[in-house]
């Protein structure tokens, strides 16, 4: 039996639960997870956005630290630069002591915009793929996750650009990477637009799209598979929030491991300075950045900030997927109750 052929033991449904599947000739009920009960698409988009925004409020300080660690020692050999940040906890302490508590939430407002737009599009589109039955095919979850991730990253790229600039920005004593010195979110958007035009707001998108494609494919495919596995193991009662919680924890580990190198490249491309011809001064694109990082910093350079990436992505994935799953379950339940009444 392949991974796509899961044994169905429960007739219960949830937002990601199983529905009746076809009978094999052997008499065993087989088939991959069919589409979930339908949720009105605009509402599903809103729930995806809301769930990830709620998670972002808790994990944004780790995003600030991750950005600083990934920019520290940019294109310099290990040991040839001053290390302001030496780990997750020490970096949080340095940022909090130097920039204050507000410094730990730098870029939060535009981060919420990014999370709302990107994940609203991503999770809402994934639900639509499920409703169409695309995810029920072998590899469907992986391809759907990658596709909707690319779409969300493309649309929300300007917000991620500004977020990266603001989170890298700090006082000279602990500054790393290029300092853009924006006065705030609106000033950043206006400055970039006036200097580079509309296309300048999408600078770095060539790094963002593969980053989110990989992360989204890993997150959604592993979350769906893990949730099916936990449900069929019958460890908890049907529709228990613990099922979604365990699945989200497994998904968080997969995302952190697969996404970190792409995350480093994306951060570098977004934060690099530009010349008078509106071209990046450090990197010409994704592959150029990949080669330069490996040559100057070694393969481990692609895993800079792995600690905060994992510490941030794991709880962010757990919180966002848990919130999303619970909201969808409640919506489906309300729709079923209304249908009976």
What does this structure look like?
The structure is a single chain. This protein is mainly α and 341 residues long. It has one domain (41-324): Mitochondrial carrier fold. The protein is built from nine helices and no strands. The longest helix has 35 residues, at 306-340.
List keywords for this structure.
mainly alpha; Mitochondrial carrier fold
Shape: globular
Write down the Rg.
21 Å
CATH homologous superfamily heading? Mitochondrial carrier domain
Which sheet architecture does the biggest sheet show? none
Summarize this structure briefly.
It is found in: Mitochondrion inner membrane. The protein is an all-alpha fold. It is 63% helix and 0% strand.
Give the topology:
Blueprint: H1 41-71, H2 88-99, H3 108-132, H4 140-168, H5 185-196, H6 205-233, H7 241-271, H8 286-297, H9 306-340
